[in-house]
Every structure is written in structure tokens, then in C-alpha cells.
TrEMBL record:
The keyword Acetylation does not apply. Its EC number is 2.4.1.-. GO terms for molecular function: glycosyltransferase activity. PANTHER family: GLYCOSYLTRANSFERASE FAMILY 92 PROTEIN, GLYCOSYLTRANSFERASE FAMILY 92 PROTEIN F55C10.4. This is Glycosyltransferase family 92 protein. It comes from the Eukaryota. Its main location: membrane. Coiled coil: none annotated. InterPro entries: Glyco_transf_92 (IPR008166), GTase_92 (IPR052012). It comes from Caenorhabditis brenneri. It is found in: Membrane. It is an enzyme of class 2 (transferase).
Length: 333
């Protein structure tokens, strides 16, 4: 997904997509704003909450929440009020969070990715959210301050995944050009998961368990969230990854498993630095994506990266491209 804000310069390059033969229809959205009906009570799902003792872009003692919210909560979802309470050993403070999104509500599904951000208290030990006088504690995570590599690729959540051939191509190409893979997993076949775990032991891959949205009640007037969120809520996982590596990675890429980027330089880092050319007005590089088909093998011993590339055939179709960000310039995707 292409980040929409801030309104800075985007450079466009090329990206390779290796695919199987399953195709999906592209969804078209109307450009005319549609009226959003307001409901009295709606759902919010909190995916993760990060606490930054120090941050280059968010400030000291910053808190960032990754949430999925129903846009019908209020007329303008960004006007919704969320109170956060931070506690350390001696003090408790309350702050109102500012909400932001990279999505336009009239073009999207009912549930949107919303980030909530505020600056809290030194040495915060507990974070709570308040609604109508009820406090709920939120588990907090710390960002990674030392990334395995300067370039991190955030790979979309894997659902019932079984295409281990694509994973091996992505892994070895990314390793060759200097990127670390951070994978979000909902479900996959056991043998595939065991294979990924072996590469995790080598430090080439990080695995992040990822939960689908679940509410105790999804009857009317509510909507079943997983059927009313765009692309199975990939943006939430991408945003979680961006916030995780915000303070440590030089560049963060937003990819699907079958998005294969082969740079023209010796490494991803070298190419991205060249294309940014030290211009801080450029917040992201956007790569166009072209479809290819190739031959896959049935067993691990027969897997050959060179044969996959040699047998790749470009298709006449072109898919939505991908972006590679400076993490300090974005808080969500």
C-alpha cells in the first residue's frame, strides 16, 4: 500500500512479482465521497502498543497504538477521543491520544487502520486506556533499537500458507542483497513452519505471530470485522513492523511474500541511498510491479533459484506496486 501522508515526493522504480496461477480481481472504489452512517456503539481492536523511552521522530516517552476501528464511531474518526493513562513507580498521568490514518474513510471498508499516539511519563511501567470511566490495561512492547540489518522487509501476514518455494526465493534474494525478513504468521502448514524456524535460528528471518480480529459479538448493528477490512488487514501488520523497527532500520519495505525486488546496485541499502540522494523531501520509494510466472518444484532437494529465474516468463499484466520507506517519516502504512 502506498503511504498517502505526508505529501512528499515519491520515486517510482520497478519490482518483480513471482506468482502462481491464481489471480484476484482488482477492486475499484468510487471517487465520490459517500455518506457514513454513525452507530452509537462500535468496536476497536488493539493489535499492539509500543513505548519509546526515546525516539528520533516521536519524542521522548512516546506511545503508539496500532488499532483497527470502525469508521462509523463518529462522523470523522480522527475526532474520536481516546484517553491513555501511564503509570510509573511514583506518578500516574492521563493524556489524550491523537489519531491518524493513511486511509480515506469514504473509499475503504468499514474497519480502518488507526494509529493513536501520545507522549506519556518517564520510566512508564503500565499503560491503560479509558472509556466511560472503565480502565483496561494494555500490554506494552519496546521497539527494536538494533536492527539485524539496515534494510528490513515487512512481509504481509501468511494465511494457511503452503508456498514454501516462494519463501525460499524471497529469503535467498533478500539475503543476497542485504535485507532482513520479518514475517507475520496467522497460519501455515506444519512442515513449512518448521522450515522457517530453521532459518530463524540462523538469524535470517524474524517470526511474529499475528492474530486476526475477534470480537465477542459481531451481530447487527456490528459487522464481522475480518470481512469488512481491506486486504485482510495487512496494513495493521505492516504498521506494527514499521513501529517495531522505527528507531533502528534505515529503510523498511512493505512486501507480500511473492514480491521479489532485485536491485540494480550491489545491495538494497546502496540502491535506496542512491535513489534518495540525500533528499529529505523524499519519504518513500515506490516500485512498480510486473507479473511473472515460473515453474515450481514439488520437493526441497529439487529447489533451484537459478532455474526459477531462468524459467520466469513475464505476463502482460501489471500489479499494484510496493513502497520502501524511511521509517522516521511515517507512523503508519
Amino acid at each position: 500500500m502506498i503511504p498517502r501522508l505526508p505529501r512528499n515526493i515519491y520515486k517510482t522504480l520497478d519490482l518483480l512479482l513471482l506468482q502462481s496461477f491464481t489471480r484476484f480481481n482488482q477492486i475499484s472504489y468510487s471517487k465520490k465521497p459517500q455518506e457514513v452512517r454513525i452507530l452509537q456503539y462500535t468496536h476497536t481492536f488493539i493489535h499492539s502498543a509500543y513505548y519509546y523511552p526515546t525516539s528520533k521522530s516521536l519524542g521522548d516517552n512516546a506511545v503508539a497504538l496500532v488499532t483497527t476501528m470502525n469508521k462509523r464511531t463518529v462522523w470523522n474518526i480522527l475526532d474520536h477521543k481516546i484517553n491513555l493513562i501511564g503509570t510509573n513507580q511514583s506518578t500516574k498521568i492521563t493524556r489524550q491520544a491523537s489519531l491518524s490514518t493513511e486511509h480515506r474513510s469514504f473509499e475503504r471498508c468499514d474497519y480502518l487502520l488507526i494509529t493513536a499516539q501520545s507522549n506519556m511519563i518517564d520510566n512508564m511501567e503500565k499503560l491503560e486506556i479509558e472509556a466511560k470511566g472503565v480502565l483496561v490495561e494494555i500490554p506494552i512492547k519496546r521497539p527494536i533499537y538494533f536492527a539485524p540489518k539496515p534494510v528490513v522487509f515487512c512481509v504481509s501476514p501468511q494465511f494457511a500458507a503452503e508456498q514454501w518455494q516462494t519463501f525460499l526465493v524471497q529469503l535467498h534474494v533478500s539475503k543476497r542483497y542485504g535485507a532482513h525478513l520479518h514475517l507475520y504468521i496467522v497460519s501455515m502448514v506444519e512442515s513449512y513452519f518448521k522450515l522457517i524456524k530453521e532459518y530463524e535460528k540462523l538469524g535470517l528471518v524474524s517470526i511474529e505471530p499475528w492474530l486476526t480480529i475477534k470480537f465477542p459479538i459481531t451481530d447487527g448493528p456490528y459487522l464481522e470485522p475480518n470481512r469488512n477490512v481491506e486486504l485482510r488487514n495487512q496494513a495493521a501488520a505492516h504498521t506494527d513492523c514499521l513501529l517495531m523497527y522505527k528507531e533502528s532500520a534505515s529503510f523498511v519495505g512493505i512486501l507480500d511474500m511473492d514480491d521479489i525486488l532485485i536491485p540494480t546496485a550491489n545491495s538494497y541499502y546502496e540502491e535506496f541511498e542512491r535513489e534518495y540522494a540525500g533528499d529529505w523531501l523524499i519519504s518513500a520509494l515506490h516500485y512498480d510491479k510486473y507479473d511473472y510466472k515460473t515453474i515450481k518444484v514439488a520437493d526441497l532437494k529439487s529447489q533451484s533459484l537459478s532455474s526459477i529465474v531462468k524459467n520466469a516468463e513475464r505476463l502482460p499484466t501489471k500489479d499494484t506496486g510496493k513502497s520502501f520507506l524511511r521509517p522516521e517519516r511515517f507512523n503508519s502504512t
